[in-house]
Design brief:
Bound molecules: zinc ion
CATH superfamily: Vaccinia Virus protein VP39
Helix content: 25-40%
Structural class: alpha/beta
Oligomer: single chain
Number of domains: 1
CATH topology: Rossmann fold
CATH class: Alpha Beta
Number of strands: 11
């Protein structure tokens, strides 16, 4: 058992919240328990899977790894979904860049994975000095030509250093995977200046999709997610790391309908190793029918949250 990832309180001071199977996986029948810290309120996985054993939860059939090809002949349409997410992310960062376009902006993406967001960012703003870091280089090492003009570094974020501070730091669904979120955020604070903006997007513990789907909610993504943040515990984790929240929205960049759909498939117990081709038309029909509901995601918390933070002033 581990201590709370936010405040360090011992596990005896926590209470179980939910026990789930491994999501999007057929590797094990083990279950995983998330607990709520009695001291700061953070919901975190305890015990977590040792990081060195996590590899078996990222098999070749892992849906995000299969990318658009998982959807068979509908792959081109599925590819547009990722492109749309990247566009939203570029627009969000672009808000800052456009405010002072003459500067050479330094942007760091933590947990960049397959760095399509940075590719879109540099294509849109060629003068940006863009860097991505990740624990493994599998997201970019096979196609170096796709990533020209972007600096990509294999590193643990908690051990990463830079010569100059960053202007914008992004974490798109990274923090919920971090085993030491406070250490990582403190390290990033050391690489910030007073005007630096940190954008953090994570699943929202208080969202309707979590309440609706219970243990099948894909936001748990057990055992890959180490903590599931509410608006309050995310702000507290940032505060303990030297950051303060500037604004928060439940309209993120991730496709919230896809989160609902994956949760529904989890509840149904589908075969995640199979092709998703036959599921494409029901997926699109569901998306169209529920579009009016998902248009409300900035008002109603449907699945994710996006927080902008700045260094604390003291
Ligand atoms: Zn705590």
């Amino acid at each position: 058992m581990i201590n709370c990832l936010c405040c360090g309180a011992p596990p005896e001071r926590s209470e179980p919240v939910i026990t789930t199977p491994a999501h999007m996986s057929h590797e094990t029948s083990e279950t995983y328990t998330f607990v709520r810290c009695g001291s700061c309120g953070l919901t975190y996985l305890n015990p977590p899977v040792p990081p060195e054993e996590l590899g078996r939860f990222y098999p070749d059939y892992y849906l995000p790894y299969r990318g658009p090809s998982a959807w068979g002949r509908y792959a081109p349409v599925a590819a547009r979904g990722q492109a749309m997410t990247d566009r939203k992310r570029v627009r969000r960062v672009g808000r800052h860049v456009k405010a002072a376009p003459s500067r050479r902006w330094r942007v760091l993406d933590v947990g960049c994975g397959h760095p399509t967001f940075l590719r879109s960012l540099v294509d849109r703003f060629p003068d940006i000095d863009a860097t991505g870091i990740d624990f493994v280089d599998t997201g970019w090492r096979d196609e170096p030509r796709n990533w020209q003009g972007i600096t990509l570094i294999q590193s643990d974020p908690a051990e990463f250093t830079a010569q100059e501070p960053w202007d914008v730091i992004t974490m798109w669904h990274y923090l919920e995977h971090d085993y030491h979120p406070v250490e990582t955020l403190v390290r990033l604070r050391e690489m910030a200046h007073q005007g630096t903006r940190l954008l953090v997007e994570v699943p929202d513990l208080e969202s309707l999709s979590r309440r609706w789907y219970g243990p099948a909610w894909e936001g748990w993504h057990a055992p890959r997610h180490t903590a599931i943040y509410s608006g309050g515990t995310l702000a507290e984790t940032l505060r303990r790391s030297g950051w303060e929240v500037v604004n928060r929205t439940t309209r993120g960049t991730l496709d919230t309908f896809a989160l609902w759909w994956m949760s529904a498939m989890e509840r149904r117990g589908i075969d995640w190793t199979a092709s998703m081709e036959s599921r494409f038309l029901p997926f699109m029909t569901g998306r169209i029918l529920t579009a009016p509901v998902f248009a409300l995601e900035g008002i109603v918390p449907l699945g994710v949250q996006l927080v902008e933070a700045r260094p604390q002033t003291r």
